[in-house]
């Protein structure tokens, strides 16, 4: 059963007489105990989604269900959902104890019960020895735990997190990420976490939901989406550097890219038609600089990143990116040949930009 469900959600904002349609029929189904990361470029409506789930904002159309029940008309305080904002919003002059106790105090919970609950949640999060400190005396990871403790103390088992790690420096962020992952594993709340940081999404999520143009473009296991993106936009968004997507055509059991002919992998034989126009997706790590390769081009730019380099190679009128692990230095303008691990190729329809393999399996499962 779904624990958090968004059904056909529409949301439009109006600012200075201009209307912006942010969400356009968005659907999302989240099970209990899942760690879902909503990933999307800045300004696509991630925060808007969290506010709609929390009840801080009303959708124009569609329904929100929590724990199997429709909650469209429930105010935030009755939804039993906790939101951890970007800056943790801890009160600087209050101790950690008072920060955690705050939501219970305003709910007029008796003092001794507050004490019991705060101590219990603090023990669980291993911050029981920090209760007398002020937020300024905490590390980034500890601040995060206090913010989560304040969310948990109310008994909310659905936690919404809005880029909570974005203010931490890179090293602390890795630790805080690891901590959050462990915490979710042991306490099992349902977490909905939004970010535009891919690494964060891939490393935290049990499921990732990719948001673009007001709908979820892809939803599922992060590595599966990485390997088989459902459309060319997702392919070009996910990964750093992202997937190369080149125009091609199917001819005589081959894929023709410009003037290069590549053998069509057998798995695609029953899926494509002679003469079909396709988009060919190849990840930068599946291309190799190799004297026997079928693709020919010249080096346009080299990004040396330590353990590997990203080589930009111009092939006819397209530039593709290749990850090279060898320490051979490549010069700008150098002529190179590339071979492809064809078993990793992904094909999209040129018009709809949809993944042809996934379209086929959808057709088969409906038959
Ligand atoms: N109250 C508002 N009035 C008008 N426009 C708004 C309002 N709130 C948000 N928007 C616009 O709606 C779009 C989505 O905003 P939202 O904050 O949900 O995006 P986001 O994906 O969370 O972005 P970011 O990653 O930058 O935080 C943006 O273009 C934003 O400018």
UniProtKB/TrEMBL annotation:
Residues 4-238 form the ABC transporter domain. One of its GO terms (biological process) is carbohydrate transport. InterPro entries: AAA+_ATPase, ABC_transporter-like_ATP-bd, ABC_transporter-like_CS, ABC_transpr_MalK-like, ABC_transpr_MalK/UgpC-like, Mo/tungstate-bd_C_term_dom, NA-bd_OB-fold, OB_MalK-like. The keyword Repeat does not apply. GO terms for cellular component: ATP-binding cassette (ABC) transporter complex, substrate-binding subunit-containing. Pfam families: ABC_tran, OB_MalK. Keywords: ATP-binding, Cell membrane, Membrane, Nucleotide-binding, Sugar transport, Translocase, Transport. One of its GO terms (molecular function) is ATP binding. This is ATP-binding cassette domain-containing protein. It comes from Sulfurisphaera ohwakuensis.
């Amino acid at each position: 059963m779904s624990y958090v469900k968004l059904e056909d959600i529409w949301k439009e904002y109006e600012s200075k007489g201009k209307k912006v349609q942010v969400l356009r029929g968005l659907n999302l189904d989240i099970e209990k105990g899942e760690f879902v990361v909503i990933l999307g470029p800045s300004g696509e409506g991630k925060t808007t989604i969290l506010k709609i789930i929390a009840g801080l904002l009303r959708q124009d159309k569609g329904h929100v269900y929590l724990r199997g029940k429709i909650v469209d008309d429930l105010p935030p305080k009755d939804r039993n959902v906790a939101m951890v904002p970007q800056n943790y919003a801890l009160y600087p002059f209050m101790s950690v104890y008072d920060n955690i106790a705050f939501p219970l105090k305003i709910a007029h919970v008796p003092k001794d019960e507050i004490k019991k609950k705060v101590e219990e949640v603090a023990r669980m999060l291993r911050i029981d020895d920090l209760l007398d400190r002020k937020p300024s005396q905490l590390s980034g990871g500890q601040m995060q735990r206090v913010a989560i403790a304040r969310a948990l103390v109310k008994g909310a088992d659905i936690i919404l997190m809005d880029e909570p790690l974005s203010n931490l420096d890179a090293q602390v962020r890795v630790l805080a990420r690891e901590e959050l992952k462990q915490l979710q594993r042991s306490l099992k709340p349902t977490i909905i976490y939004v970010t535009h940081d891919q690494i964060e999404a891939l490393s935290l999520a049990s499921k990732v939901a990719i948001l673009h143009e007001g709908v979820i473009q892809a939803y599922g296991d992060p590595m599966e989406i990485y390997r088989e993106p459902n459309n060319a936009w997702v392919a070009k968004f996910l990964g750093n550097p992202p997937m190369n997507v080149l125009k091609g055509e199917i001819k005589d059991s081959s894929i023709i890219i410009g003037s290069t002919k590549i053998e069509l992998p057998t798995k695609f034989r029953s899926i494509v038609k002679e003469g079909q126009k396709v988009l060919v997706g190849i990840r930068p790590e599946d291309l190799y600089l190799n004297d026997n390769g079928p693709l020919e081009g010249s080096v346009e730019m080299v990004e040396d990143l330590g353990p590997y380099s990203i080589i930009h190679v111009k092939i006819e009128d397209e530039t593709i990116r290749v990850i090279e692990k060898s320490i051979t230095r490549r010069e700008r303008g150098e002529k190179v040949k590339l071979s492809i691990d064809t078993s990793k190729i992904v094909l999209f329809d040129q018009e709809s930009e949809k993944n042809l393999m996934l379209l086929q399996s959808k057709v088969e499962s409906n038959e």
